[in-house]
User: Which sequence fits this backbone?
């Protein structure tokens, strides 16, 4: 679908250029025609020239109309199938979103930073940078669907369009991401906010705070124009996903915010129920002949390549090794395509600015996180994969083998998500060098794993020359980024108080 959307955008971009040119020509033709039409003498003296102007004007208008019709047709016509119960939950969520859109004020949260309460003479724990936005029911110009969907604009990143099966995150006309609705989590909480701007009429005031205050909340008498500000309750909505989505909004009407969040949770839970209903029932006692061809194998391999399905059915010589090679090639090809889009999607998502202490804490956690990811991937390759293959490559368990290779692909994507999340944090200027050293870690790991299909090809080639040894182990080479990162961290430890 992402590919189709890109094609639709490219067509629209070409048409936009043609339409701009055609409209310019149509305006000129209309001016030339109407000037003579409103006059008296010229259209009678030069009848052929006047007729030519009329035809040019009508042709230009017809061309503009045709191009606009082509533009209308360059949308992705979609049909989204939902069962009755899930459709009911989606439209209820959409209705509650429309109600939440009526909040008098809605803000997009742009940044958060910690506050030195003593230096800034405030009782606030953090300062939030925000900008006013308006929620609405709208349509994306690239997708043709008969229903309007929740539209959440974003000042620094991409606008969100919430469709039943996916969220379209559009950072610009040509940069967008599609996120499975099942992966998007909405977190709601009520927050207490010291409001320095005009107070919305639909919010609830729960107290007051002095603009300049002591640590205990009493007014700082050194400031002559000190005044009280209301403490109000706003509803905070934060959308997140494993692929890096991180968008927070504040609504002045906390009641409408929680109503929408609850409706979202009910709709989101419907995907879990849907998956559970589609799982095959457990089989009872079966004879050995039935157990040899497990009933869930066709289902498990329904979305795999034709060659993979053929290998599972025919089970010829070294079929398990050949199946592993085919599954790895197809799935790692998709992982590589995902990583090739890394830079474009990183630019599309908003950055979070970190202060020095926060970023150093992030750096200290990074090595443990990378180590955990490497260990998990090594477990899939060195334990799960051999278990699925069996001792000879002809007694393989196709379900275990498919699961192991899916886990390997997911492990690679976990590295992509980690690097994406890490690079989405903007460090202070003097820490940018050390942060930049970790760029490309995911690419290095993926390149290592991409050697696996070649290892299986060697086994098949060896079997054809009389070698039957089946031994696949992948040793991860240490990415050069880690060595440079460790060197930079050693320098930081010598000069930064945050490592104390």
Assistant:
């Amino acid at each position: 679908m992402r590919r189709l959307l890109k094609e639709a955008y490219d067509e629209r971009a070409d048409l936009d250029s043609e339409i701009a040119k055609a409209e310019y020509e149509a305006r000129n033709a209309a001016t030339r025609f109407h000037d003579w039409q409103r006059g008296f003498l010229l259209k009678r003296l030069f009848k052929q020239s006047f007729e030519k102007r009329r035809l040019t004007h009508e042709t230009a208008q017809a061309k503009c109309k045709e191009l606009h019709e082509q533009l209308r047709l360059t949308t992705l016509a979609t049909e989204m199938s939902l069962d009755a119960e899930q459709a009911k939950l989606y439209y209820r969520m959409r209705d509650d979103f429309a109600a939440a859109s009526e909040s008098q004020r809605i803000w997009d949260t742009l940044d958060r930073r910690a506050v030195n309460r003593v230096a800034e003479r405030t009782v606030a724990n953090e300062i939030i940078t925000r900008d006013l936005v308006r929620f609405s029911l709208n349509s994306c110009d690239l997708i043709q669907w008969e229903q309007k969907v929740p539209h959440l604009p974003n000042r620094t990143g991409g606008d969100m369009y919430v469709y039943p099966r996916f969220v379209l995150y559009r950072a610009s006309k040509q940069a967008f991401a599609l996120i499975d609705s099942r992966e998007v989590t909405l977190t709601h909480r009520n927050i207490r906010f010291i409001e320095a701007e005009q107070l919305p009429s639909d919010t609830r005031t729960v107290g007051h705070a002095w603009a300049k205050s002591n640590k205990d909340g009493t007014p700082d008498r050194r400031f002559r124009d000190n005044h009280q500000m209301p403490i109000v309750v706003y509803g905070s909505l934060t959308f997140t996903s494993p692929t890096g989505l991180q968008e927070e909004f504040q609504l002045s009407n906390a009641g409408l915010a929680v109503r929408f969040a609850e409706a979202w949770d009910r709709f989101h839970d419907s995907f879990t129920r849907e998956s559970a209903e589609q799982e095959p029932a457990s089989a009872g006692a079966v004879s050995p002949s039935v157990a040899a061809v497990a009933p869930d194998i066709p289902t498990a391999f329904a979305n795999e390549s034709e060659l993979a399905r053929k290998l599972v059915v025919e089970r010829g010589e070294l079929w398990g090794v050949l199946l592993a090679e085919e599954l790895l090639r197809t799935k790692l090809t998709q992982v590589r395509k995902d990583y090739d889009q890394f830079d474009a999607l990183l630019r599309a998502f908003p950055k979070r600015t970190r202060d020095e202490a926060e970023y150093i804490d992030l750096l200290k956690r990074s090595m443990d996180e990378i180590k955990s990811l490497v260990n998990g991937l090594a477990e899939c390759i060195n334990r799960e994969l051999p278990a699925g293959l069996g001792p000879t490559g002809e007694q393989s368990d196709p379900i275990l083998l498919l699961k192991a290779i899916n886990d390997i692909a997911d492990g690679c994507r976990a590295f992509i998500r980690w690097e994406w999340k890490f690079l989405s944090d903007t460090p202070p200027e003097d820490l940018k060098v050390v942060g930049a050293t970790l760029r490309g870690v995911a690419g290095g790991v993926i390149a290592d794993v991409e050697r696996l299909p070649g290892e299986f090809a060697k086994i098949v080639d060896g079997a054809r020359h009389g070698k039957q040894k089946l031994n696949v182990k992948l040793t991860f080479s240490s990415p050069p980024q880690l060595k440079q990162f460790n060197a930079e961290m050693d320098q930081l430890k010598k000069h930064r108080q945050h490592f104390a």
Q: What stands out?
A: The CA atoms of residues 92 and 129 lie 32 Å apart. Residues 2-74 form one domain. The chain has three domains: 2-74, 84-275, 295-499.
